[in-house]
TrEMBL record:
Gene3D superfamilies: 1.20.1280.50
Species annotation: Helianthus annuus
Pfam families given in the database record: F-box
Superkingdom, taxonomy of origin: Eukaryota
Residue ranges of domain F-box in the record: 4-43
Protein name from the UniProt record: Leucine-rich repeat domain superfamily, F-box-like domain superfamily
Length: 172
């Protein structure tokens, strides 16, 4: 067994944050996960989730959305809170919308500290004329500190509920 695998999980996650920062191609993260069973487990519990479609230029759209489902499932199975969730994509099909809704709902139920979301509807999508509406569960996340949104609508009850964000950054 390697010495790093014997460190506490929080320290290994900190090391991973330097090795695999946000915006790193997922292939680099996968390379780290194959080092051992311990590292595979640690990458599954890594609390910085980045689902940015432009980082997946080497794979199909279908593979990107399967990656979102798989990673979300592994992460949520451990009942962890995400420090950062970055979801930047466009939607072309209703199946993609279903995956985004399902995975976002699961991750938000577990809790997210920093949410960066930009979900644009492609001009060829059947719902191109509307913005993505964030789920109502967003308002009940007690640990959410920062919300950065683009091409999204806030839940309709947003103004009625008390929101405790430290930062809200809307973008067009």
């Amino acid at each position: 067994m390697d010495l790093i695998s014997q460190l506490p999980e929080s320290i290994v996650h900190r090391i991973l944050s330097f090795l695999v920062p946000l915006h790193t191609p997922p292939a680099d993260f996968v390379r780290v996960s194959v080092l051992s069973k311990t590292w595979f487990h640690l990458t599954a519990s890594y609390p910085h989730l980045d689902f940015t479609i432009r980082n997946f230029t080497h794979v199909s759209r279908e593979s990107f959305f399967k990656y979102i489902e798989y990673t979300t499932s592994r992460f949520c199975h451990q009942n962890l809170t995400a420090y950062t969730l970055r979801l930047i994509t466009d939607l072309r099909e209703s199946a993609e919308l279903d995956i985004v809704n399902r995975c976002l709902e699961l991750l938000l139920q577990n809790g997210v500290y920093d949410l960066v979301i930009g979900v644009a509807n492609s001009s060829e999508s059947p719902f191109a004329s509307t913005n993505y509406r964030l789920p109502n569960i967003l308002l009940s996340i007690s640990v959410l500190d920062s919300l950065d949104i683009g091409h999204c609508e806030l839940p309709s009850s947003f103004m009625l509920d008390t929101v405790m964000f430290k930062s809200l950054r809307p973008h067009k």
